[in-house]
Amino acid sequence: MFLLPLKFVFTKHLFRTYLHNVFYELISLETVKMLNIIIMNTKEKNFETKLIHSGAIKDQFGAVVTPIYQTSTFSFENADDGADKFAKRKPGYIYTRIANPTIQDFEDAMADLENGFGGIAVASGMAAVNLVYMGFLKSGDHIVASEAVYGPSRVVLEKFYTQYNIESTFVDTSDLNEIEKAFKPNTKLLYVETPTNPTMVITDLEKAAKIAHDRGIIIAVDNTFSSPYLQKPLDLGCDIVLHSITKFINGHADVVGGVVVTKTKEHFDKLNSLMILTGANMDPHQAYLVRRGLKTLSIRMDRAEKNAMEIAEFLESHPKIEWVSYPGLKSHPQHELAKKQMSGFGALMSFEVKGGLKAGKIIMDNVKVSVLAVSLGGIETLIQHPASMTHAAMGKQDKIEAGITDGLIRLSVGIEDINDLINDLKQALEKV
Ligand SMILES: Cc1ncc(COP(=O)(O)O)c(C=O)c1O
């Protein structure tokens, strides 16, 4: 009875493993979620194999892809079974806001890819940001964050967390002295975005983690711009990673979602419980689409980065361009740090056309291959104006201090043909 079919391989965390009710005594009683029988143990496998196979579960029909368990609730064998599951004496799915196999496939894959303990999938990137803020900050606490974070990640702190007596300070986190100067006795969280949106400023995560930990401060990183394919903050000593999976993780501009990955069980249990209680959960259909998009992350990013490098070089050498900020260019002030910390430079860049916003608008109004839209990290190239769009809610002075000038244009490079992309920008620049 205890012999398992050979192709069933146990999951990485025994206490999160769901085999059969016969084994349920082996499982930690605190476990809120349980894993299914997974098809392949990817623990020792390489990144691309994890992208394809991590988290996929074995169903009774041998489905190669985890099906969409589009159900809000799960039935119990009998009243005792239900009571045991609620009391966590026995593993098993109860209700989709708490846990669902399709969502869990995605969460486990993300935890595996980020080398973390556990993943928590949520409704949007902003839900992930708020889960981290709410989980680690209470009344009287202080947070230090990168000054050029995604606009709403900053605005929510200034507009709403102040209502709960939570103070925030925004600094250039690429300058470690600035971080140290901003720390106060009540600082509980260092929140870093690197590269920053949209200025492409890079923070040394290993050093930032060290100075935070020396003071007992938790460090969380928004890894949206890089994805675990290019940067693994947990390996660099950070505690928490989060993503707007609306971007590179899903990659197809058809889903909004978020995920948080923790390094420790303690942080996982805390944030997972908060996710359940705040109802921030992802939906099974959303999770299915994102898990499908994730499988091609590395080939999408390789192609987008190749395109981005060529476009950055084209723009930098163009007489009508004032400056280009792309970590892959030697002119980027932190090019060497990017090479050390990231395994690629990504597909995001910002630039300014000579003539500022007026000239920039001509580019945005005349491109025909790049799409004028916010968001990033998809297979299509998107162009936008952060000062009036993604970062519009930030104060004027805050924008200036964060380097989000009126003339700055952000380009998220996709995987179209490079000649079409460059010719498109060329013809738009001719109109300036
Ligand atoms: C870096 C970064 N973090 C978080 C978010 C918020 O994500 P979402 O729009 O999925 O809520 C975004 C959105 O653009 C982002 O760019």
Give the integer mean of the pLDDT values: 91
- Counted by DSSP, the helix tally is 15
Superfamily (CATH H level) name of the largest domain: Type I PLP-dependent aspartate aminotransferase-like (Major domain)
CATH topology of the largest domain: Aspartate Aminotransferase, domain 2
Give the low-pLDDT segments: 1-33
CATH architectural designation of the largest domain: 3-Layer(aba) Sandwich
Our measurement of the CA-to-CA distance between the termini, rounded to an integer number of angstroms, reads 75 Å
Largest sheet: 7 strands, mixed
Order of helices and strands: HHHEHEHEHEHEHEEHHHEHEHEEHEH
Number of strands: 12
Bound molecules: pyridoxal-5'-phosphate
Strand order of the largest sheet: 1-7-6-5-4-2-3
Note the beta-strand portion. Answer: 5-15%
Radius of gyration: 22 Å
CATH class of the largest domain: Alpha Beta
Number of structural domains: 2
Q: Overview of this structure, please?
A:
- The chain has 432 residues and is of the alpha/beta class.
- It folds into two domains: 101-294, Type I PLP-dependent aspartate aminotransferase-like (Major domain) (Aspartate Aminotransferase, domain 2, 3-Layer(aba) Sandwich); 297-430, Aspartate Aminotransferase, domain 1 (Alpha-Beta Complex), CATH 3.90.1150.10.
- The protein has 15 helices and twelve strands.
- The protein has helices at residues 47-53, 79-86, 101-113, 125-136, 151-159, 176-182, 205-214, 227-230, 265-278, 284-294, 297-316, 335-341, 356-366, 396-401, 418-430; strands at residues 118-122, 142-146, 167-171, 187-193, 218-222, 240-244, 258-262, 321-325, 348-353, 371-372, 382-384, 408-412.
- The strands form two sheets. The protein has a seven-stranded mixed beta sheet, sandwiched between helices. A five-stranded mixed beta sheet has the order 8-9-12-11-10.
- Strand 5 (218-222), helix 8 (227-230) and strand 6 form a beta-alpha-beta unit.
- Helix 13 packs across helix 15.
- The longest helix is centred in the last third of the chain and has 20 residues, at 297-316.
- It is globular and about 75 Å long.
- The termini are far apart.
- The model is unreliable at 1-33 (pLDDT under 50).
- Bound molecules: pyridoxal-5'-phosphate.
